[in-house]
Amino acid sequence: MTSSNGSSADADDHLGAATRPPVPVLVVDDNAAKRLALTSVLAPLGYAIVEADGGLAALRCVAAQDFAVILLDVNMPDIDCFETAALVRQRKQSEMTPIIFITAAAEDEIQTDHYVEGAVDFIFAPVAPEELRAKVSVFAKLFRQAEGLAERAREVQATADQLRFLTDAAPIGIFQTDAQNRYVYTNPHWSEMTGISAAEALGQSWDVIFESERLTSIDDLPVGTMAQTEFGHRFEIQFRDSPSRVVLITSKTIPGARGGIAGWVGILADVTAEVGEEEAQSDVLDQLTALSRLDPLTGLGNRRALEDDLAVLEAQVARYGHRYCIALFDVDHFKAYNDMYGHQAGDEILSAVAANLTHQARGGDSVYRYGGEEFLCVFPEQSLDSGTTAVERMRLSIEKLAIPHAASDTGILTVSAGLAVLDVEMSSSASAVLKEADKALYRAKEGGRNRVEHAALLSA
């Protein structure tokens, strides 16, 4: 068994490839000259070529590491290729490893049963170098992609583990229920306050896990303005061996993927010492309200925050004659980016665009996530001309990030923008200004993207 590396890295010509080990490829043939020939053909691709002189040696290699693809000679002296392939498939770690059989048989002599026995493809001797390199490159790229997916999965799991660690260590009770109000998670502090273990709560509803004589409802609390989405309640919990405790439960709905409610998430706070004092309740509700106004992906104000703030701006325009320039940004070819690079990469570039817009915004400017790949910026006391200058600066800043976007005509990620003015002399209606900004954005898209357009002046 031997190993060799090529001198080039054409197959790994992408960002970060230099920090990764070369793609491993296993060449199995009892003939040293044939192995050398195959290795020489693959050398320019820069793979880590591992050689095995028979089926048994190949199995030892497979047990020691993973391979992007196995090139397996059909005729071998110890165990034949089909038995070798079957044994490779029996190992869970290698059951999906592609195996290409190399044979001197004519193509019409190959039986379809051979594919069932483990082959994904055949290469017929004499081996054409370009054919060999092309086929191996396909599986090498798939191997790299699988490595990338596995790495991202580990990152997601690490984030989830970190979040669980934080909630477990939180000094307040935290819980989550399903759509039927059955507990799916409670943190240690929740158990400490209620006297109910996580195992006892799992799968049970609040009313079931508490005996009626232990629980006294004090009052329902008004929470927010969105009916059926927020809930607040105070309970007094009786304990046999310790004083009773008043707890404040504040929860918010988890939206379902297809609408409706998927469950609830909330906090349990011990407000025994604050009974009769509304400050504790107000603080908790303010935190929930603040969170409900933020977009969880980008940290920007969300659509709800924007609607509230626009109502205030309308009033200031009407009463004090203030003027605001409003700009809509849209990420160009975002769907194509998502399709090509995946939704996680799409989320990452939305966060990058949000961070860049926030960085470029000046004191008093506000940035929101308008929805999907659209963002909205508000520039106080700006005209169309000065607002256009500010928006053009932001557009150019996104372009200078030079985020690769192969599906874009420019080859990089860009944004288009449209803007209009909320002004008592032009239009004091925020909804009308949004429509004009949207029309300007549409013209920017139609005009080739990666550009800024502004609305014509409106009549009040």
Topology:
Elements: E1 2-5, E2 24-28, H1 32-42, E3 48-52, H2 55-64, E4 69-73, H3 81-90, E5 99-103, H4 113-116, E6 121-124, H5 129-169, E7 173-178, E8 183-186, H6 188-194, H7 198-201, H8 206-209, E9 215-221, E10 230-237, E11 245-255, E12 261-270, H9 278-292, H10 303-320, E13 323-331, H11 334-341, H12 343-360, E14 366-371, E15 374-380, H13 384-401, E16 415-423, H14 430-446, E17 452-454
Helix pairs in contact: 2-3, 11-12, 12-13
Describe it.
40% of the residues lie in helices and 23% in strands. With 460 residues, it is of the alpha/beta class. The protein folds into three domains: 2-148, Rossmann fold, CATH 3.40.50; 171-292, Beta-Lactamase; 303-454, Reverse transcriptase/Diguanylate cyclase domain (Alpha-Beta Plaits), CATH 3.30.70.270. The strands form three sheets. The chain has a six-stranded mixed β-sheet. Strands 8-7-12-11-10-9 form a six-stranded antiparallel β-sheet. The termini are far apart. Residues 6-17 and 222-228 have low confidence and may be disordered.
